[in-house]
Structures are given as structure tokens and as C-alpha cells.
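hi!! sorry for the late reply, been swamped w classes. u asked for the two structures so here they r. pasted raw, havent cleaned anything up. first the sequence of the first protein and right below it the C-alpha cells
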Amino acid sequence: MKLSNYYEPTPRRLKKLGDTILIGSTTLSAMMMGSPFTDTQKTWIIFGLNVVGVLGKMITNLFKEEDGEVEQ
């Protein structure tokens, strides 16, 4: 895991994990709109979920495929 690996190909398993984190946090953010929390609480919860989703996706991009791993 290095910053220089950000633009290198990501392993398939980690790419799926990052996508799952992003989709899950976005889905939960959308579901929060119907929750019984106050508007201020909803705003902060949605903000936190979106930050988790984006950071989860970005962190998985820091891993690099090994030389033997080839995605087909």
C-alpha cells in the first residue's frame, strides 16, 4: 500500500470491495432521508456516510496488482 500505486491497476478483489463500500454508503445515505432523525442529525449522518464511501474507494486504489496477478 503506497501512494505511488494510486494510478496502477487495482486487484480485482479490492476493486470489488471499494465499489461495495461506495455503493453501500450511498444507499444508506439515501435511506437516511426517511429516518426519524432531525434535519441536522440527518445532514451529519449523510455527510459521514459519504466520507466513508469515498475514503473506502480511495484507499482500495492504493494497492497494486502483483506481477503474477493478471485481470482478464
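now the second protein. again sequence first, C-alpha cells right under
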Amino acid sequence: MSANQPEIDTPKKAGTARIKKPRKGWHPVDIKAALEKRGMRMAWLSRQAGYSRNSVSDTINGKWWPAIERVIADALEVAPWELWPERYNDYGQPVQQGNPNMVKLPRAGRPRNAELKVVK
């Protein structure tokens, strides 16, 4: 490449760039307080996202649920790995509970065991 030609910036694939995770995540009480400060109740946020009323509360209190974690993070305008760094790998992908080396696949990526029946 000559000195007169600009460098071409090639876009990276999603999930290939490392993220900078904090060492420690937010405390559950801090997450609840931040939601309250924004005028959001946990049950209301769960219902708005289309889940049962305890989904947000369960996720804040320890249940690993990437979809709800994303809802909470979007409501607080932060990334999910800022709230729960132990639940995400260095590329921002959710990991399986108890095994940080295994990436958790979304439900859409897994085969279902149910058979579809044609109704006439």
C-alpha cells in the first residue's frame, strides 16, 4: 500500500470483537433501585416484554436468562455484561451457567422435540 492510499477499514463480524467487561457486576438491589428511579416496576417490565410477572425479578435475583437480561439492560440503557459480567464471555455472548467456556444457544437455534400436527 502506498502512502497516498487510505487504509480500508473492514467491518468485523458480530460477536468477534472483544468487549471490556467490568470485574464486578451490579448488585441486585442497585438494579432494582435503578429501575425504580426510572419509574419502572419489575412486574410491569416483565409484562411489557411479554413474559410472566416474575421474570425480571427472578433474573435479577440469580436466574440466568439472556432474553430478560437484555430487557433489563435496555431499560437501564447499559449492556447486559455490565450488569452481570459472569454471565457473558469476552465477546458479549451469554454462557451456560456453571461453565463459562460454553456459549448458550438461543432457543431458536435448538431443535424442538414436539411434533407438529396438521389440523383440518
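hope this helps!! also noticed smth abt the second:
Residues 1 and 39 are 55 Å apart (CA to CA).
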